[in-house]
Every structure is written in structure tokens, then in C-alpha cells.
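User: Assemble these into one structure.

Assistant: Restating your components, then the assembled model:
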Amino acid sequence: MAEVILSGVNKRFGETEAIGDFSLTIADGEFVVLLGPTGAGKTTTLRLIAGLEKPDSGEIRIGGEAVMDLAPAARDVAFVFQQYSLYPHLSVYENLAFPLRSPIHRVSRDEIHRRVLEVARMVRIDHKLENRATRLSGGEMQRVAIGRALIRRPAIYLMDEPLSSLDAKLRAELRLELKRIQKELGSTLLYVTHDQIEAMTMADRIGILADGKLVQIGTPREIYGNPANLHVAARLGQPHINLLPPGLLPGTSEPAGTKTIGARTEHLQLLTTGDANAKVAWVEHLGDQNHLHLTVAEHKLTTLADPHIAFRSGDRIRLTLKDPLYFGAAGERLT
Ligand SMILES: Nc1ncnc2c1ncn2[C@@H]1O[C@H](COP(=O)(O)OP(=O)(O)OP(=O)(O)O)[C@@H](O)[C@H]1O
Ligand SMILES: [Mg+2]
């Protein structure tokens, strides 16, 4: 495993700046997740590290070595693509074994067999080892693709939204499993996604990507609790952060220049007594929790409600703020 460094990397496709002045150091054994919306430059970043694209400028180092002139095969990376690509004429077993069969690796038959079974169990595909790759569901193909990367021990694993085609239950299981495997192997892993739950649960550090720029990088706790700006704050939190004008709700002490107040669920206090200032518009029952949709004057807010309190549409309640986030005119965070 190895440290990976990108310094001042730029990549354009014609008019589009896919990645701009991108610098990031991924420590040996670190799990970094890049979180960003569609078109933010996530796949491009991975392809640059893998050598499938050439940067216009800047430097990429893997394990101390500048790799810009190395072909993809010489870079010692394992890539799980967004569009999984298996060898269709091969069985699941042979797809998994493939990366170890290359003569340069010199892995014995017995060792290959052992590793294939081990990895197949990890990604829960051991019951379909004899199936052809084409005779699998999308989620099964994706698991084979993950397994085919995990079977090697490269300098770095690059994973491009590998869980996005799986159902929610399997996604939650494999999230935990991937994190466990990465810790156990001490692997360096760069993972990209637009799923905030994946980022929050797996990452040692999350990098927030927007329009090809790395806006902020830090531990999940830092990114969630101490966002640098409105864009970062809005990437995380379920329900979505409420953006309110100053003065709408009591309980704040706004710094000078406050243009927007960011209120997540934990920043909103609901009282059923006192002067009512909010109205329940409707309640969404999600089973384990309730989303409460509120109106304050003409503004709409969403928050979580205690499932033991039976709110109903039309109920009037008192809403106050407690230590919300403050943002200035350019969306910058104020403290
Ligand atoms: N080969 C290409 N030719 C032209 N433009 C490209 C090419 N590859 C990417 N782009 C552009 O670069 C930008 C970043 O693309 P990229 O694929 O890295 O985004 P992404 O964050 O992976 O998005 P998604 O979540 O949709 O996969 C986009 O504007 C995209 O249209
Ligand atoms: Mg992509």
C-alpha cells in the first residue's frame, strides 16, 4: 500500500474544466471519500490517478514515485468502475481469478483458489461461482467487479460509486464490509460517491468536490459540524439543512454580515407550549422516524419529530433555534 499525492492537477475536456488546481494527499492506509454531485469531476480524478487520462498540468505521485509517464498497467492500482465491466465469456470464478493469472504475479493455483473463495465470500457471490458473468443481476455483477479489485493487493484501490446499483439492504451490508476489509488489509482507498451516508460511514476523511474543485477536506465529523461554506453544509444531513433568513426564528445571536442561517434538525427545538410561530403542514411517516414539514410565515422547513409525539397537519407549535450555522453573502461560514 502507498501514499498518493496529487499536486495542482488540471484537466480540461475542450471547454469543460473537469478538474481545476486539484491537490490532495491520501495517506498510506487511509480511506478517503470524494463526495460530489454529478459532473463534479469524481470519475475524472480516479481516471487521472489510474493513468486512463493524462493531466494537462500538475503532478501525481504513488508511493513516492511520479507516475505521469507510467502506463496504467505499471501504476499498481485496482479500479472498480462506475459501469462495471466483466469478461462476459468467463465464469464468476474466472473473472475473480483473472487479475492473479497474469504471469508477472506468479501466484500458485492453490493460492489463486484460496483467494477466489475468500473474496467471493466477502462480496457474497460464492453461491454463483460457476455462473457466466452475463447470467447475473446488476448487483451481482457489481459485487464481482468489487471482488476482482479486492483480490489484488495494489498500492491503491480506486472505487467509482461501486455500491450504487445495489438494493438498500445489501448496500448497507457491503458498506460495513468494505470498511472492515479496508481496515483489516490496511489498504489505501479512494472512493467516490454522491451518497452522503456512504461518505459519513466509511471515510477517514471526506473531500467535498464541486465543479472540479476540492472545496473542503476533513473527517466526517469536521465536514458535518464545521462546514466551510453553504455548499458543503448542504451536501450533508438528512433531512436536508433548512436555509432561513436572519430574524425568522428566535434563539440566535447572529454575527455581523449574516445573510443565511443554516438549521439542521439538531438546531431546531420544538415546543408544544408557548407562543406558536410555526404550523405543521404535513407529517411523513418513515417508520422509524417522522419527517415534520413546517411553515413559518411563508418559509418551509423540514425536521425530524419525536415518533412518540403525535403531530398532525394544522397543529401550531413553537420553534426556536439553538446554535445554528451562520453564512455570509457569498455563502462563506461565519462564526
Ligand atoms: N471524455 C470526456 N470528454 C468530454 N467531457 C468529459 C469527458 N469526461 C468527463 N467530461 C466532463 O467533465 C466533467 C466531470 O466529469 P466526471 O465524469 O468526472 O464527473 P462525475 O463527478 O464522475 O459525475 P457522475 O456522478 O455523473 O459520474 C463533466 O462536465 C463531464 O461532462
Ligand atoms: Mg462519475
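The chain has a mean pLDDT of 93.
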